[in-house]
Specification:
about 900 residues; mainly alpha; Alkaline Phosphatase, subunit A; 3 domains; eight-stranded mixed sheet; 33 helices; 8 strands; about 55% helix; about 5% strand
Length: about 900
């Protein structure tokens, strides 16, 4: 065996080791970066200040109505559908607030904050997507639901989002849950604008007549689904608000007229808001500012005058701003139960006038403070019983000791004639300091694991670089790839660059494609300057297709200005996309033979099925786009179920992997491109036509053939650019779940996970197959039978391409380069998260970026570029 063969095998072993270390590095770092916080077990008891009687609560029953994604302006401003709610605010029967929702602004962690008053773990973002998860249960944690159940004064009811059932198993006596993610399915099974809410509303009238319950939780999903599909300015938004306002009216009128409900408190709130694009998960003002309204005829005695409707505020801060965690201690006082043990919220002072006795007011505030200090004591070991000199407060060694000292002084002053306003101000300041301390303690990083994870990523990078050096021909054409990798890594240390990362890839892709085109000016008879201009124009269209990032999300783009307002243009381009895909498949078969006779009908049927599913899906998902001739097309397609249509498409793709159609899959126009089309929003389908245009020019510029480093660089910039062009960002709010249930009729974590990944990485998957085409053309040109004039410009690459690698050296070099980028970028992100772990935006910018790095590393790199790419390349060399 020749020495070059040993070198190739050794290089392969190093590359395999490097890729195996990627998930190891990710796991180790995540264990240190996302630890579960220790929580105090059991239910709180009335122990603090037990020598004094507990203040009598003004309410004994609660209706807790959550409208998913209820942004504050949806309720408080002019033009809203919540006219009755505004009338209650005006009359003093409702007290309005803006409840700050900390990132991540998704349902599960927000419900944890609302019910327990604690700070949820960032890992709840992932658990929020897994409906089968049970590890996130709050069955062993204290919450106002647990406290209401412990009172044994009535049953607990739940109608709506089944996230409550997952968080609180065996808590509700009567329940009817609705999946929060199954947002597009057969019409007869599900209508996510209406049926999800009708399923909640149908229970209300009968339950209001019964008096065997003390807590009714209602969680409506329709408004959130409207936002995801068409944004906060959708024509469906105000009608949905009127529907929700009608529910408020029915409940409030029942409170006024039914004797057993006279001491019932109605709370209307959002679990989070939404941004201008209709999404949530990040930390923009719209996402973190849901409405919070307390309603009851009893509130007229204490409510302060409020302006209705409120003047517009671009920061969505209307009336008094409170934290969502403040709900737990406030409900405890209003309904008569101890503050939940892990609460970090502060009692809302606007409700203190319910208790005219000064002693009762001080009791409530001090109970809240001592409960929070119990958490501080458990975390720091500082005791409230320690004697502190009054002059020592402010100069003590730790913040915890200083808080203990200050709380002692406040407790002493509460028994004196100190002004109530002064005491309230000091208590408010103390609570704020305590919350800040516990928030910092919540980020309990394991530094040893952070370092181990980072070191593992660096080792993987070193192995990948060693593999590349052994098998690759290190040339000047690696400089652009190296420059992009280094610049990208530096960007990870700036929050604004992470949020607006798409600009880097748009400009990098444009500059690289322009360079590649013009670099052929003296080496080909074609007109690269003209082609370069065309390529730049195509890239400009790709850049402007979807407005993404954080600063300008929701601003006008091609989709909003042209596609949605001109459905016939959209469908014409979409049909053309499917037609060109079919023609490419047909072209690859040659001019005759049995293979062609078998597969041409197969291609026709498969493309027809795929198009049929997309049209039928759009009629349910975005019916406003089905106009004109599309109505006739929809009627022609029949009434088959969406699940059945999708399953037929996926089955056709699976059949395509069986001989004799398998050779189709060696080309970029097989399942590796049809599947991304199936899993993309209809408004993004024309993007694939632009991708095909770029691919067309890249293949014709390929004279002489692009070298491996150039192919890898092209693949890199276009995969990343296409991800953002299709609406992706580094924020959780941009995760698209609209195609997560194609072909399935129920929840499956594996199926939904795969479909969600393909839907969000459709562009990168498409370009991964495009890179394989260029690599195969490179290999054919370097082989012994390559036509004259099409040989490689690198004699060493040609020599290596015909060694023991059997042509696999080009794929090997390509994957080695990608592994270098992935491990380097992963290392940079880990370093940024470690260095900036105390940064203000660590949980809103850098942590989501780490999650996306996981997606790029494990999903796109290992599964698509390495796995799928390896299979396609191997088939292409047979």
């Amino acid at each position: 065996m020749r020495r070059s063969q040993y070198g190739f095998y050794l290089s392969t072993a190093l590359l395999v080791a490097a890729n195996l270390l990627i998930p190891v590095a990710i796991y180790i770092f995540a264990k240190g970066f996302f630890p579960y916080k220790p929580l105090l077990p059991g239910l709180a008891q009335y122990e603090a200040l037990k020598e004094e009687p507990q203040p009598a609560p003004p309410f004994d029953r609660l209706v807790f109505m959550v409208v998913d994604a209820l942004r504050s302006d949806f309720v408080y401003t002019d033009g809203t559908g919540f006219q009755f709610t505004q009338s209650l605010i005006k009359d003093g029967a409702a007290m309005p607030f803006t409840a700050h929702a900390t990132s991540p602004t998704v349902t599960m962690p927000r419900l944890k904050a609302i019910t327990t008053g604690s700070i949820p773990s960032f890992l709840d973002v992932i658990l929020n997507l897994d409906e089968a998860d049970t590890s996130s249960t709050l069955s062993t944690q204290d919450s106002w639901l647990a406290q209401m159940k412990a009172k044994k004064t009535g049953k607990l009811l739940l109608y709506g989002d089944d996230t409550w059932l997952k968080l609180f198993p065996d808590t509700f006596d009567r329940a009817d849950g609705t999946s929060s993610f199954f947002v597009s399915a057969d019409q007869e099974q599900y209508q996510d604008f209406t049926e999800v809410d009708n399923n909640v509303t149908r229970h209300i009238t009968s339950e209001l007549r019964q008096d065997d319950w003390n807590t009714m939780v209602l969680h409506y999903l329709g408004l959130d689904h409207i936002g995801h599909k068409s944004g906060p300015r959708s024509v469906n938004m105000v009608p949905k608000q009127r529907e929700m306002d009608g529910i408020v009216r029915e409940i409030y009128e029942a409170l006024e007229t039914q004797a057993h409900l006279e001491s019932t408190l109605l709370v209307l709130c959002g679990d989070h808001g939404m941004n201008d694009a209709g999404n949530h998960g990040a930390s923009s003002a719209g996402e973190t500012s849901p409405a919070l309204v307390f309603m009851s005829p009893k509130l007229k005695s204490i409510a302060k005058p409020a302006t209705v409707p409120a003047p517009f505020d671009e920061d969505f801060q209307y009336y008094t701003k409170v934290d969502q965690s403040d709900l737990a201690p406030t409900l405890g006082a209003l309904l008569g139960f101890p503050v939940p043990k892990n609460n970090l919220g502060a009692f809302i002072l606007d409700f203190l006038p319910f208790w005219s006795n000064r002693r009762d007011q001080m009791h409530l505030l001090l109970s809240n403070a001592k409960q929070i200090f119990d958490i501080i004591a458990a975390a720091s070991g500082v005791s409230l019983t320690t004697a502190y000199a009054s002059s020592a407060c402010g100069d003590l060694p730790t913040v915890a000791e200083d808080l203990a000292c200050e709380l002692q002084k406040i407790s002493q002053l509460a028994n004196t004639q100190t002004s109530d306003d002064d005491l309230k101000e000091r208590m408010s300041t103390w609570l704020q300091r305590a919350q800040e301390l516990m928030s910092s303690m919540a980020s309990n990083y394991d530094m040893s694991k952070l370092i181990q994870g980072g070191v593992t990523a660096v080792v993987a990078l070193a192995l990948a670089m060693a593999s590349l050096i052994m098998v690759g021909d290190i040339r000047w054409n690696l400089i652009p790839f190296a420059g992009i990798t280094i610049l990208y890594g530096i960007m990870m240390f700036a929050s604004s660059y992470v949020e607006e990362e798409h600009h880097f890839w748009y400009w990098s892709a444009s500059a690289w494609l322009f360079y590649v085109t013009l670099s052929r000016a003296n080496r080909t008879k074609r007109t690269p300057a003209v082609i370069a201009i065309v390529v730049l124009v195509v890239m400009r269209l790709i850049r402007g297709w979807n407005q993404t990032g954080q600063k300008f999300a929701g601003e006008p783009d091609i989709v909003k200005l042209f596609m949605k307002s001109n459905p016939q243009l959209l469908w014409s381009l979409s049909f053309l996309t499917y037609l060109t895909t079919a023609l490419k498949l047909r072209h690859r078969l040659g001019r005759g033979g049995l293979l062609r006779a078998i597969t041409v009908p197969f291609i026709t049927v498969l493309i027809t099925l795929a198009l049929s599913f997309k049209v039928a899906f759009c009629s349910e998902d975005s019916p406003e786009l089905i106009v004109g001739f599309m109505e006739a097309v929809l009627g022609f397609l029949g009434e088959a179920s969406l699940v059945g249509r999708a399953q037929a498409v996926f089955a056709g793709i699976a059949v395509g992997m069986v001989y004799p159609v398998y050779c189709l899959l060696t080309q970029p126009y097989g399942w590796s491109r049809l599947n991304p089309l199936t899993q993309s929003r209809v408004t993004n389908l024309p993007l694939f036509l632009l991708f095909q245009t770029l691919q067309f020019f890249l293949e014709r510029l390929d004279e002489p053939k692009l070298e491996t480093a150039e192919i890898s660089t092209t693949s890199l910039v276009l995969q990343l650019a296409s991800f953002f062009a299709m609406g992706g960002t580094n924020a959780i709010s941009s995760v698209d779940l609209s195609n997560a249930y194609n072909g399935i009729s129920g929840y499956s974590v594996v199926a939904v996970g795969v479909l969600t990944f393909v839907g969000n990485f459709a562009g990168p998957i498409w370009w991964a197959s495009g890179a394989n085409v260029l690599l195969l053309r490179r290999r054919l040109a370097s082989g012994p039978a390559a036509p004259e004039g099409e040989g490689t410009s690198s004699s060493s690459e040609k020599q290596q391409g015909n060694t023991s690698g059997g042509g696999g050296v080009y794929y090997h070099q390509h994957i080695a380069l990608w592994t270098v980028f992935i491990t380097a970028s992963l290392g940079f992100v880990m370093a940024a998260c470690t260095a900036l772990r105390t940064h203000l935006f660590i949980w809103t910018v850098f942590s989501p970026k780490y999650l996306y790095s996981m997606g790029w590393s494990l999903g796109q790199h290992l599964l698509v570029n390495v796995g799928m790419g390896g299979v396609l390349y191997w088939l292409g060399t047979r």
